[in-house]
Amino acid sequence: ASVTRNKYFVYDSATINTTPTPTAMVNAKARLAEAYTATSPTGTKITDVGFSYSARGEVSDVYESTPNSQGYYHVTASYWAHGQLSSLAGLSGLPTLYYGASDGSGLDGEGRITKITGSAQNPVTGVTYTTSGTSQPIGSLTQVTFGSGDYDNFSYDTTTGRMTQYKFNVGSPLQTVTGDLTWNANGTLQQLVIADQFNTANNQTCTYSSDDLGRLASVNCGAAWSQTFSYNGDNASAFGNIRKSGSTSFQPTYDPATNRITQLPGPFVPSYDANGNLQNDSLHSYAWDADGKAITMDGVGATYDALDRMVEQNRSGSYTQIVYAP
């Protein structure tokens, strides 16, 4: 709990400490204007997020600071009249992305995005949706074409809407990676057939089975890989704990009173903190805050904002920030 920071939320109005001048949040009346972590309401902010809004209430600006960001990141968004995202901008080194063109050519008749453009590039040049016929569900996305000329195709079951095939079409001469999916009546995956023209060693057929509770019972990909999963429910261990055998094995021992793993193959005895969070599993070590979020894994530190999102990682003094868009 000592590493769990207090969270503070500000509504209606807020001014964040951007430089060279502070910035007041716009259109924040009756909305979240700021969320920060600190040791006290007036203490130094450890993480800080500010929100401005459009006149209609969409999040238009996000300001984010972390312990080692050396200021605030600022990401902006604009929206079409029907509420769909129109543009995303603000991160240094990344172009402004436009979802649909300013003349409206990047939207279809239902207001869905059909292309995405950026400065000196076109990430997505075309998106196809099913608007008629009976071969695909109405409204389903069936093709995405990228600025490189590569394109992906998708097919679906007209009754359930589940995907029945994906196909990635890449390069010149054209090569494809195809996956054909078959489903059980209860919605669990029955089979996946992969055909890879880039690397035929990846060609495989995998079949899946599930138990009466819909849990995965087995996966069989032939000689490449297979697994069988079992779940205890016989009072020998707490109900639902998993074991697996096959190409790789996982045969832990569970404590029926706490549902914790008491021994791993090796043998290895895992350790837990007072809240029941795993601290060591023989391969990795972990530390947790009072909210149950991992704050270190194998020595890599993680910092979370007031919204419980990871916003910074610390690798032996080398810091990486994670920035969220509106």
List the helices and strands and how they pair.
Elements: E1 6-11, E2 15-16, E3 23-24, E4 32-38, E5 47-53, E6 59-65, E7 73-79, E8 85-89, E9 97-99, E10 116-118, E11 121-129, E12 141-146, E13 151-156, E14 163-170, E15 175-183, E16 189-196, E17 204-210, E18 216-220, E19 226-231, E20 242-246, E21 253-254, E22 261-263, E23 271-272, E24 278-280, E25 286-288, E26 294-297, E27 300-304, E28 310-315, E29 318-321
Antiparallel strand pairs: 1-4, 2-3, 4-5, 5-6, 6-7, 7-8, 8-9, 9-10, 10-11, 11-12, 12-13, 13-14, 14-15, 15-16, 16-17, 17-18, 18-19, 19-20, 21-22, 23-24, 25-26, 26-27, 27-28, 28-29
Description:
- The chain is flat.
- With 326 residues, the chain is mostly beta strands.
- The chain contains no helices and 29 strands.
- The chain has an 18-stranded antiparallel beta sheet, with no helix packed on it. Strands 25-26-27-28-29 form a five-stranded antiparallel beta sheet, with no helix packed on it. Strands 2-3 form a two-stranded antiparallel ribbon.
- The protein has strands at residues 6-11, 15-16, 23-24, 32-38, 47-53, 59-65, 73-79, 85-89, 97-99, 116-118, 121-129, 141-146, 151-156, 163-170, 175-183, 189-196, 204-210, 216-220, 226-231, 242-246, 253-254, 261-263, 271-272, 278-280, 286-288, 294-297, 300-304, 310-315, 318-321.
- The mean pLDDT is 92.
- It starts with 5 loop residues before the first strand and ends in a 5-residue tail after the last strand.
